[in-house]
Write a structure and sequence with these properties.
Elements (H helix, E strand, L loop, with lengths): L2 E3 L3 E3 L9 H4 L24 E2 L9 E5 L4 E8 L5 E7 L5 E6 L11 E2 L15 E2 L5 E4 L4 E9 L5 E10 L5 E6 L5 E5 L10 E6 L4 E6 L11 E3 L2 E5 L3 E7 L5 E8 L20 E3 L7 E5 L7 E6 L5 E6 L14 E3 L2 E5 L27 E6 L5 E7 L9 E3 L4 E8 L4 E7 L6 E9 L11 E2 L5 E4 L4 E6 L6 H4 L15 H6 L13 E5 L2 E9 L6 E7 L7 E2 L7 E2 L11 E9 L6 E8 L2
Parallel strand pairs: 1-42, 2-42, 3-29
Antiparallel strand pairs: 4-35, 5-6, 6-7, 7-8, 9-10, 10-11, 11-12, 13-14, 14-15, 15-16, 17-18, 18-19, 19-20, 21-22, 22-23, 23-24, 25-26, 26-27, 27-28, 29-30, 30-31, 31-32, 33-34, 34-35, 36-37, 37-41, 38-39, 38-42, 40-41
């Protein structure tokens, strides 16, 4: 077999990023705003993953605000403005904020909502942006509202309620549209002490509200998710999939109970699963659904077939009695799911229901675990990280191939913005930004904007994390020199820079190619601290034909090869393409500076 590898390719034309969305995410919900930024868990499927690039694992700048409010819900519409729902510390009343994405200043007076008397999560915390950039929520009096932001001729902004429809359920803790535009909701509790919570929808076409009551005693303490297959709801006892039926009656497609243990674990908000159900899958993006159970002392990661509810399998979560507990939704994308541990995490007592836990307390250790659904339909743990205490709910950028979160040093209460390699679970970077309760992210999830900025809610406001324009950017390293200029060694300047060079005389390590079993591996030093660079590895079986970008880990995985010293701001990564039945394979690495 002949193998040819072309290891550099230069173009000055704009290069589109690898389009992984069609293979790893469900289709974008047409009744929501931009995928990745229009709801708490990134999209209707609650993937907690995005195709937007994040700040990266290089040097970052972090600015913080103090609004005297907890910011669990941070979103961005197609206009690039931040719409957030936050709860004031002084009176625990939710407010809608419109913020400048650059300096985090308020653009309009915050709009006061109604405080719920039934649940800390009700009253608008779980909300979303629709396809007109309106915030959609159900307030604590049971009104489904759409709140818009408009700018006057003098430049001032206003938040105002466009529409308000009474749906009859004031205790809503989950809200998502289906793919036909119905607005689905879930209540925290039933209408009486013994009745179950309610799942239903408001149909804007008929203006009717439909409802389905869960079995007695079942409550809902997490958000809900949708895909073209239906709407997924996790109660304190079971996982459900619903669709809209005829005569305004929701149809339960299936129900799968899970073990919910003797009580609420420390580091959880409720008795039952702590996870919002997440759709995922390598083909359609929604072949599977995942939650965690609440078995004691060993909790489990559960995966179900979306079409039938049939269990795919379960895998123990981390270590029993140490960090086997979870209150976060999974990162779920492709055939992989990532769950953090919140076991022992010190939530505010006012948010815990019931107030007693089993056991009464536990130290917060943290940890994270990756589980893959293999091609034979079985589950396999790929890695576990038992040392990273994630104080925020992690989010993944598939464009960067990085997991972003906030860690806490439990000895000093120092909070740090960190990145994690999804291929190995290793921490790649850590930047401290503050200490004390004001900087606590309270296991809330971040939002990553299309321009690579990460916004994370804290107990007192929010932080903004952005990659620092370093002196090692191309313009600083090669001042006045065109990227397509060629050095004395015959390498274009942009290629030298991409592989870690800092001047025209830099000697850089070029990529290597080798066969391993049934695949071709390209190992390369890649610059990760310059978000202006666009790059991808491509392959072909015939040099006369077009090139195809890698779609399986397109940004590569951190290499275990011994390859000398890797330059500052760079990583050594492996890129693999299966040989298949092809007699030849050609690889090239394409680098572009727009």
């Amino acid at each position: 077999m002949s193998v040819y590898a072309r290891v550099f390719f230069l173009t000055i034309a704009f290069l589109l990023a690898v389009d992984v969305s069609a293979q790893t995410f469900p289709p974008a919900n047409p009744f929501m705003g931009p995928p990745g930024t229009s709801t708490m868990h990134a999209n209707a499927a609650s993937s907690d993953a995005t195709t937007n690039p994040g700040p990266g694992s290089g040097q970052v700048s972090i600015i913080a605000t103090n609004y005297g409010a907890v910011f669990p819900t941070i979103m961005m519409g197609s206009d690039g403005l931040i719409v957030a729902v936050a709860t004031k510390i002084e009176n625990r009343t939710p407010y809608v904020y419109l913020l400048n994405p650059t300096n985090l200043n308020t653009l309009a007076p915050p709009l006061e909502l109604i405080r719920s008397t039934t649940s800390e999560l009700a009253g608008g915390i779980y909300s979303y942006l629709d396809n007109s950039n309106c915030l959609v929520l159900v307030n604590a009096h049971g009104y489904l509202q759409r709140i818009s932001h408009t700018q006057a001729s003098n430049g001032s902004w206003t938040l105002s309620t466009n529409s308000s429809v009474q749906i009859g359920y004031p205790d809503v803790v989950g809200l998502v549209p289906d793919y036909q535009g119905r607005v689905w909701f879930a209540t925290a509790q039933g209408s009486s002490t013994n009745s179950g919570a309610v799942v239903g929808y408001y149909d804007p076409t008929t203006t009717n509200t439909a409802a389905f009551t869960l079995p007695n005693g079942e409550q809902i303490a997490n958000s809900i998710s949708s895909s073209p297959a239906g709407v997924a709801v996790a109660s304190t006892a079971a996982l459900y999939l619903f669709q809209a039926g005829t005569n305004d009656v929701p149809v339960q497609l299936w129900r799968q109970s899970y073990t919910n243990g003797p009580g609420r674990k420390p580091g959880q908000l409720s008795w039952g699963t702590g996870a919002t159900p997440s759709f995922f899958g390598p083909a359609t993006g929604y072949e599977y659904l995942t939650i965690t159970d609440n078995a004691a002392p060993q909790e489990n990661i559960l995966v179900f077939q979306t079409s039938s509810g049939t269990p795919v399998g379960s895998v123990p979560l981390l270590t029993a009695g140490v960090n086997s507990g979870n209150e976060d939704a999974a990162i779920a994308v492709g055939n992989s799911i990532y769950y953090p541990s919140t076991y022992g995490y010190p939530y505010p007592k006012s948010a815990e229901n019931p107030t007693n836990s089993v056991p009464e307390s536990a130290p917060f250790v943290g940890g994270m675990q990756r589980v893959d659904v293999l091609t034979n339909g079985t589950l396999q743990t790929i890695w576990t990280n038992n040392t990273t205490a994630s104080a925020a709910e992690p989010r993944m950028s598939v464009r960067d191939n990085l997991i972003y979160t906030v860690s806490v040093d439990t000895n000093t209460s120092t909070y740090s913005f960190i990145t994690i390699d999804p291929g190995t679970g290793a921490v790649l970077s850590s930047t401290p930004y503050g200490t004390g309760w004001q900087n606590n992210p309270l296991q809330m999830v971040s939002m990553i904007s299309p321009d690579g900025v990460l916004y994370q809610g804290t107990e007192s406001g929010l932080i903004r994390v952005q990659a620092v324009p370093l002196s090692s950017t191309y313009a600083g390293s090669f001042p006045g020199l065109a990227p397509n200029g060629v050095g004395a060694d015959g390498l274009p300047y942009l290629i030298k820079y991409f592989h870690g060079g800092t001047n025209t005389n830099s000697s850089v390590t070029l990529p290597t190619v080798e066969m391993q079993a049934d695949r071709l591996i390209l190992t390369a030093v890649v610059r990760t601290n310059d978000t202006n660079l666009l790059w991808e590895v491509q392959f072909t079986t015939d040099l006369a034909s077009g090139w195809t970008p890698l779609t399986n880990n397109p940004q590569g995985i951190l290499s275990s090869h011994i390859h000398g010293t890797v330059p500052t701001g760079c990583q050594l990564r492996d890129f693999a393409v299966p040989q298949g039945s092809d007699p030849k394979k050609f690889l090239r690495l394409k680098v572009t500076q727009p």
